[in-house]
């Protein structure tokens, strides 16, 4: 049986180092470039697999070189890609980011084949994928796809975890299927309408849903469905880069839930995993 099924996005991220962002009609000379296999779905699936979970992915790439790299990256991480479709009509998802010397950046994301997943075929085509202990979702593919996947997975007894990133409005029908909601400060404020994070956490919680609010170096807050709150401190580490930490947290969290951990124990494990991640240099290709 699959431990963690991830339905979501795959993007090839190309990062260019430059002295500053270019102006309109301007060409700058950069110093280096690299690529990294990304997309929140792909990152979270890789993290879950590296935490020991039997992990499978549902998604879509183009029939192109980027797609080959994205699929190979999942396989290298130990993720089953039997349910990753190859789209001849749409290119693979990708992004281009220009990173300034001071750390600021600007990016353009093209979702491509990620937006071409057919929600009407999900229950049938992904039936084996969705017979998992945990289904992990994000907001980088259409909600109709997430809804179809959550409905089919719940019918087979799966626990549905949603990382509501990037922040967007979601229907009550979809949220009713979510057993565990994971948000950061921006997503919590947007979804709850509350600026105070404790108030936002309480507003997003329900008797049928646990909520985790991640806060980076400030640790995370958990409110269980029974209304009990736990504050979980961050791992004290030297920060190298926080990029991708949320995806690491979600993948590790799903892996431990599938292994049978209680929600608080799983959150503490995920916090440790994310702390180790941000204190380790992440390499790309270039």
Residue stretches low in confidence (pLDDT < 50, at least 5 long) are none
Q: Could you say which structural class the secondary elements and strand pairing correspond to?
A: alpha/beta
- Helix % is 25-40%
Across the major sheet, the strand order is 5-4-1-8-9-10-11-12-13
Radius of gyration: 18 Å
Distance between the termini: 37 Å
Tell me, what's the shape? Answer: globular
Order of helices and strands: EEEHEHEEEHEHEHEHHEEEHH
> Kindly state the mean pLDDT as a whole number?
92
- What is the strand tally? 13
Our estimate of the beta-strand percent is 25-35%
What does this entry look like structurally?
- The protein is of the alpha/beta class and 286 residues long.
- Helix content is 32%, strand content 27%.
- It has nine helices and 13 strands.
- The protein has helices at residues 40-50, 65-77, 122-125, 143-155, 172-175, 185-192, 197-204, 245-258, 263-278; strands at 2-7, 11-17, 32-38, 55-62, 79-87, 93-99, 105-110, 132-137, 159-163, 180-183, 210-214, 220-223, 229-232.
- The strands form two sheets. A nine-stranded mixed beta sheet has the order 5-4-1-8-9-10-11-12-13, sandwiched between helices. Strands 3-2-6-7 form a four-stranded mixed beta sheet.
- Strand 12 and strand 13 (229-232) form a beta hairpin.
- Helix 1 runs parallel beside helix 2 and helix 1 crosses helix 8 (245-258).
- The longest helix has 16 residues, at 263-278.
- The radius of gyration is 18 Å and the shape is globular.
- The relative contact order is 0.15.
- The mean pLDDT is 92.
